[in-house]
Amino acid sequence: MSIFYRILKTIFAGIFLLSLYTSSGPAGGDFPPSPESGPGDGSVYLQISADDEGFDTWQPRTLNGGYRYGPSMILNSDMSIDLWSAASGPGDIVDLVSYKRLYDGGRKSTREVIALKPTAESLDGGWTCDPGVIKFGDYYYIGYTTTANPGGVDNDVCVARSKSPDGPYEKWTGDGWGIIPAPLIEYDGNPDHFGAGEPSFVLMGDTLYIYYSWNDENSTTRVATADATDENWPATLVYHGECLPAKDSGDSADVKYCDEYGRFAAVFTEKRFSDESYVAVWESFDGIHFRQSGIVKTNTAKKLHNCGISGRANGHIGRGDPVYLSYAYAGTGENEWGCWSTRMHKVTLSLASRPETDPSAEKNSDSITVIRKEQSIIPEITTVKAEHQVYTISKTEHLFVMALDSDNDCFPVFTGITFDGYDESVLKIRGSFMYPQAPGTTRVNISWHGFTGDFVVHVE
Questions:
Q1: Which domain holds residue 434?
Q2: Phi, psi of 352 (to 5 degrees)
Q3: Averaged over 412-433, what is the pLDDT?
Q4: Across all residues in the chain, what is the average pLDDT?
């Protein structure tokens, strides 16, 4: 009997550990409160260094390419890491926001899922990309870049919230939270340029700091603040203008607050996509005025871009926390747009008596290259969507809706699909066929084994 009992105990313990490993919900427990530091010592400068050459957390497929770029990372109290990235989307969707939880310093993970996706025929109908994530109160908030312009210019910043890191997320609508997004940061510059995007958040007391790219004639970073105690905090923004100057072929800044050294730290890549690329480190004592303090180049890949640095849910790097730097890169000898690996390094933060601003003093690694995995018939990211985001059909025809389970490849799905939320006076759906009833427009929700999507139907 005792042997049988021990066997059962071992089995149940294994099941329990497996459930912890595969869960995508919030990590158990919270960090103890982290005291807010006073003004830091301005006579010393923050330095960040990569401990080693790191490892890839994602690699592109042989046939498709693809990417996971612009990583946003939250360190949990159990030392797991919630990771959101911009992921290549299927069909007429350019970018989605993917999510997975990393363990063992990033070397193991849960299955990747889609956390945030576009809403058809809306401001973010083409893509949701460049995620910046923070958690306070009951919600995770994802800020993201989007535009209604098919050329990928004239971007705005939008934001969505969820009580779970993997969603579902509801979007800021301009006066509340729902389906149709409105801008958090609205770009009003030259519409032929990139615009606003690539947000990052830090919570200081009850004040939320929002950092975002503003690319009109030059690529700069701006900052705004909001009242984090207000459920509708996107309506409380106060704009403070430029906080980081024009970059040298640089990109998005990811900002965290370092409790130990009493300063904000901003990281972004310079000379992106080149063999001389590196991560620039800037610091600030008030979150608004920044100065250059260091670089990260030794041990990093060439052609790196769109980096992120880990922090706690509130955007702080706590005393004694492990810290990770991640970025996308096209490896040595590769120059294919959209075919990028994603790399992660454990990094060390320290102070120095002078700033390090000369990138020629360090050298990228020559041994890190993009490795393409063999094509798999099983997609890494699972979502569900119709064949198209928008259908226009006449009242006299009926149409088959091909639902797709997709990463970069599209796989037909014929069973287990449900449709709801649509106006049955305009449209009826039986099985996977749409039957128009009367002229009009309706949005249709689609579900498949817990994965959700939506599309729009115009009946003429």
A1: 390-459
A2: -135, 160
A3: 81
A4: 85
